[in-house]
Amino acid sequence: MITGRDIIYISSIEWDFLWQAHQEIARRLAAAGNRVLYIENTGVRAPGLKDTKRVASRLGRWLGAQRAGGAREVTKNIFVYSPLVLPPFGSAWQRFVNRRVCLRQLERISRAMGIKDPLLWTYLPTDTALDIIRSHRTDRSVVVYYNCADFSNLTPKAKQLEKSQQELVHHSDLVFATCSEMAARLSSNTRSAHVFPPGVDMAAFPEEDTKTGDRFDPLNISMLPQPIIGYVGGLHRLVDYDLVAALAKARPSWSWVFLGTHQLSVEKLEGVPNIHLLGEQPHEQLAGHMRFFDVCIVPYLNTREMTTIVPTKINEYLAAGKAVVSTSLPTVAAFNAEYHVLSTSIPSAPDFLRAIEMQLTVAHDPALKKRRREVAARADWEMQIEEMSILIEEHL
To answer: Which contacts qualify for 364-367: CB closer than 8 Å, 24 or more apart?
Structure first.
């Protein structure tokens, strides 16, 4: 694990957002003795009316951080900067304003922290991210681009984003991607992208000890009618809500439990009596809640946009020893072709239900639970970040 480095970390999500690779990697880098300046999402598109709450929250964090010099320390060695910034790929005057406001403040923060020769790590392939990299890069810096999403599906300026991404890849010392397809897109004749799929914190999912009698259950999930079919994660635009509603209505005696923040309207699920929307829960408590699930699901839409989506929750489900059923996303199908550890289904209620029923017959088999955990352990974050660190050290 690299240590003793200053890291400018250009994230594509907020620090307090649903816990993902961004926060997990930052936390582990900081724990290893590096100082991380975590820059919250500067966006890939202009915000709309639905983003009003998020924009207001950003403004509040920015104002609050001014008393601490512009960045707030959220834990040891992690300092979060919440920039006020105009959307990327704007006109010349917009980019000028960003440089005069956001970049200048970031440079003041960097100087105040004594950051020198930083490792520059970005999840965003935007012109804003490139400006940050250019203004902070030195001859001793290393630039890492970790592609965790196909942002061309999230912006109306896909051509500008693609051009910016190509420029970022050219200027990067290392390129990481979450799946082989994105790695192939980002590789060139002179540089190959390295595949690092979403990892899992195995320590957060300890093997169940049935002898202890620990029945941590603040949500009373154990009191629900069985079987209990569970989902952990954000309820966002990738979820097939029509499929979920049809599944629950087809099996009214089953309990369908959803743990996660509501990122858009879930009205299609709210009126179904056996669907239990329990909201976002602390990340460190997820394993305790999941103990009561019989089968875990990934009911995602299977569209062209989903070609490169790698659901983080699959390894978390497996780390908890749980049986898993997912719609047959390309990345999930490829994963299962290698490990044969879960079931996939087309996005059809009858087919998805058959897959769940098949998994219910083996859900609590001790040998299979052990096998699931063994597969998940191959993606343990500790090992993945050590592999990343080896590549970074070669350039340092």
So the answer is: 364/294
pLDDT tier, 86 (very low <50, low <70, confident <90, very high otherwise):
confident
Please tell me whether residues 27 and 43 are part of one structural domain.
yes
Polymer length of the chain:
396
Cβ neighbours around 220 below 10 Å, total: 10
Q: pTM of the predicted model, to two decimals?
A: 0.88
Of 46-55, 234-243, 276-285, which gets the smallest average pLDDT? 46-55
Residue entry with tokens 């289904």? 345
Going 327 to 331 to 336 to 339, the CA torsion angle's sign is: negative
Within 10 angstroms of residue 61's Cβ, the number of other Cβ atoms is 19
Give residue-wise pLDDT tens across range 180-198.
Answer: 989 999 987 677 899 999 9
Q: 395: closest CA among 172, 187, 177?
A: 172
* Bridge-based pairing state of the strands 6-10 and 35-39: parallel
Q: What is the largest CA-CA distance in the chain?
A: 65
**What is the structure's pLDDT at 212?**
47
Provide the 8-state DSSP code for 41. Answer: P
Calculate helix-pair angle for 241-250, 349-360, nearest 10 degrees.
Answer: 60
Q: Give the three-state DSSP class for 154.
A: coil
Same domain for 63 and 158, yes or no, is yes
Domain of residue 143, residue span? 6-199+380-395
CATH assignment at residue 306:
3.40.50.2000
Given a contact cutoff of 8 angstroms between Cβ atoms, the answer to whether 73 and 81 are in contact is no
Cβ contacts of 219 within 8 Å, gap of 6 or more: 278, 281, 289
Q: Please give the distance of CA 396 from its chain centroid, rounded to a whole number.
A: 27
Taking each helix axis as running N to C, give the angle between helix 21-31 and helix 381-395, from 0 to 180 degrees, rounded to the nearest 10. Answer: 70
Joined together, the tokens standing for residue 167 give 């420029």
Q: What is the DSSP track for 73-135?
A: EEETTEEEE----PPSS--HHHHHHHIIIIIHHHHHHHHHHT--S-EEEES--SHHHHHHHHH
Mean pLDDT of the chain: 91
Helix axes 127-136 and 158-171, enclosed angle (nearest 10): 20
Same domain (yes/no): 192, 238: no
| 140 burial type by CB count under 10 A (0-12 exposed, 13-18 middle, 19+ buried) | exposed
